[in-house]
Design a protein that fits this description.
CATH topology: Metal Binding Protein, Guanine Nucleotide Exchange Factor, Chain A
Number of strands: 11
CATH architecture: Beta Complex
Structural class: mainly beta
Distance between the termini: 17 Å
Strand content: 35-45%
Shape: globular
Bound molecules: zinc ion
Length: 139
């Protein structure tokens, strides 16, 4: 098993058998709202490699791209577990926060820097995009 994880109250658990196809730090406004003002950190996995036990709630809206985004979270503790785009049903974007340590994932790409607050500390060594970059290629 490559990764395990859980929400803050452990009502939701994850087992991920595949390897991440990309990692991102996202400064979009929606992410700042759910992440208490900072960016989210996300690892993108093939959807079929992510097994989730427990009950999730979700919220859905239309992104700037016109795609439908769905954020899945634990209804008991509010922890964000993963996100899914209608344009990429074959991928699940798992929040770093639910992954058990230690793991080797680090942010590789910073996205939506145009929305970042002026005090944001963005690593200049990382590839960055002012908005949404192209999706990663299939694993
Ligand atoms: Zn929970
Ligand atoms: Zn975002």
């Amino acid at each position: 098993m490559a990764y395990t994880g859980r929400c803050a109250c452990a009502a939701v658990t994850l087992e991920i058998t595949g390897e991440s196809v990309g990692t991102r730090q996202c400064w979009c406004r929606q992410c700042q709202t759910i992440a208490a003002g900072g960016p989210t950190h996300n690892a993108i996995f093939p959807a079929e490699s992510v097994a989730i036990a427990g009950t999730l709630a979700s919220s859905t809206w239309t992104a700037a791209s016109g795609n439908t985004l769905t954020f899945h979270f634990c209804p008991s503790c509010g922890t964000q577990v993963y996100a899914q785009s209608s344009a990429r049903p074959h991928l699940k974007t798992v929040r770093f926060g639910v992954l058990d340590q230690p793991h080797t994932l680090v942010p590789q790409v910073v996205i939506w820097t145009a929305d970042a607050p002026h005090w944001a500390q963005i690593n200049p060594a990382l590839e960055s995009w002012p908005q949404q970059p192209p999706a990663p290629p299939p694993a």
